[in-house]
UniProtKB/TrEMBL annotation:
Protein name, per record: Acyltransferase
GO molecular function terms attached to this record: acyltransferase activity
Superkingdom field: Bacteria
Keyword set, alphabetical order: Acyltransferase, Membrane, Transferase, Transmembrane, Transmembrane helix
Transmembrane parts of this sequence: 40-58, 78-97, 150-165, 172-191, 197-222, 234-253, 265-285, 297-315, 327-348, 360-381
Amino acid sequence: MDEPRHGYFPYIDGMRALAVLSVIAYHMDSSWLPGGFTGVDVFFVISGFVVSASMARFDHPRLLDYLGHFYSRRIRRIAPALMVCLLATSVASALFIPQAWLSDTSNAVGRWAFLGLSNFVLLRTDGDYFSPKVEFNPYTHTWSLGVEEQFYLLFPLLFFAWAFGRRGRAASMALFGAGLLASLAYVFWVSKDQPALAFYMLTTRFWELAAGVLLFQILAGLRSRGNDIAQASAWPATIGTTLSLAALVYGLATARAGHAPYPDALLPVAGALGLLGFLQVAAVARPLRWLFENRTALYIGRISYSLYLWHWPVFVLMRWTVGLESAALRVIALMLTFALAALSYRFVETPFRRAAVVRNAPRLAVVGIGVVVIVVCMTGYRKIGRMQPELSLSVVARQAEDWYPQGRETRPELPDCAAVGHVETVANVELRVLSPTSCKQPSQAGRLFVIGDSHASAYAGMLKQVALRTQRDIYIYTRAGCSFASLQPWRDYQVPHCQEFGASALADVKARARPGDVIFLPALRLPRFADQWISFKPEEVRDAVFGETAVVGRQESERVIGETLRPLAEQGIRVVFEAPKPLFRSPPYRCADWFSQSNPACRDGLTMERSEIEALRAPVLASYGRIAAQLGGVSVWDPLPVLCPGKVCHVSDHGRPLFFDGDHLSGHGNQVLVPSFLAYLGSLDHAGASSAARAAQ
């Protein structure tokens, strides 16, 4: 740790130990210490206090020397261990974590962590700190380092005046005080409506760091006037220490997700400030002092930075592979964490902080070389990310064409014929257009329009082949999480941004489509048995189909869908619904490898009784029938007989995956369905041609 002006305060390492162990306990199992994530708030207070102590020795310095001293110390303190951790984590992630929705923002977070900006990426992409994507991102914990590093850009400018006598000290305190009040006011304003912004940003965390700075400045001011707090009376200090510890522990035990840093970080911050102040009194009761200054606490505090760096990647990588649920696996995770932290402290942190060659080097040179090394490490990180398909030990990455649904844009027998795609934006809706080129054969039929959520996107491989084999132009409107005509109003038109998506997509289809064109409406119309990170109770699944709310929702949706699609039907556009596909209780891609097959995510199995799927589908198919009775030109394509030809539905087909996760198709599943969908479209075209011929007669 940085040594304060007035000596080494051992209890600060004890406080760091308490903070890091609280964070580790929360990340291992949030039920152990529900507010343990506020240990980070304690770190912020300590950082503000300690970094002030480390810079308080200067008298009338030159600004350039001052900045050189400050930033050389910060780079030596933070960068080496962080660079090693990020690079090692990137290699382990490339080996063991396949690309999926659950991991699709991880690389970006890690990349910007090199520059101390990962908190911005997390806010923009994953949002809520307590969401599943964050829990499976091995770089999530770097958000707090980003906040500290951004604070360090401001700190020397606000603290510089401290070195210029009484007026300078008053000015510095005023600056930090104003910043603290402004930050508190801002976090109070945004915390209710924008909890993710309140959680991740320096603007809402500045008050915690500034509180540590101001505490140091107040104590230093008392010393300068001959009031040495170390000589204060024992009983008031002991009572203050006890109350501060109680406030801190209560805050760590009771803080709530979505209520930090305001108001639920107030108690931990107040407790940390109290401990930093009262434990300076030499006569504090010995049991309290021992609690923070025993040998174990001091050691954990000294390695707390490395512990914080390493615990999260270890936990996340175990969640992706063998799991982190059993007592034995948790013990292994803790042992790995402490071993890696000890090695990092001994061979990375300590040499760069204490080696004479580094300490005696010109400070601006240390800063310059440090920046170059950070950029080089970031470049190496990006290279590792690009090499992931070659490095990965996962069959999902090695057999990407089978697993991922994007599919080929060409046909082996016609290599010059390609389904060239381009993306347009239509009224804030992403539209991907597939247009066959160089195929040397005329189009066989009208155009195909597709509207839907991620399940529409998951038909990409099949749709490319349809474009190639029929020479149709295909227009695909998708927005993740927004179904269209799903028979579940809470998943489409009752959600404002999804209702906007559906209306905009439909309006564009009406403007483009001609009689004889087809609109295909795939969607998740059954409740999931499992998501990529969690399984749902069977009774919850059945209630979501047969419960009163579900029945009423389908009835309402039938009416809304009929009214919505009527103009298309009257325009002569044929509407094709997708009959529900099989669903599974475990995500296949998380269970495909030797290192993940024992993961608890796979315990519910990778097969389903077809009769169970048929029973769940029955109400949806009945709704289709009633909608078709209202409108002409409505029909249903059913992929179930192809994907599940027997009494038991399997996630794979002779060892090749049919599904990527519990309900989205794989690349191979797309190819298996191509003949069926082509035949269905052919029957529609034939029926349309027959109708046209009869009308002509």
